[in-house]
Amino acid sequence: MQIDSLFDLLEVGQEILKESITSGDPNLTDSNGVNLLMLTASLIDEDNVRRLLQRGADVHAHDRQGATALLYVSGNRSV
Question: Taking burial as the number of CB atoms within 10 A of a residue's CB, which of 40, 58, 73, 76 is the most buried?
Fold first, then answer.
């Protein structure tokens, strides 16, 4: 599944985001390579980060700029 921006999910609603995290593809990415783990990490959402990791989210995945979830959680997406 490919969507324009995972950050758009926040505008659509937290329910859709929660559904994507709990039952969707844990490695879902948007057109910029941002995945759900990066999104939840940037929101400092420990519970959903944990859920995604338990469901097999790829901690080594990177976006088009080369940033990983670790860079998203630090707030510094520059590589």
Answer: 40
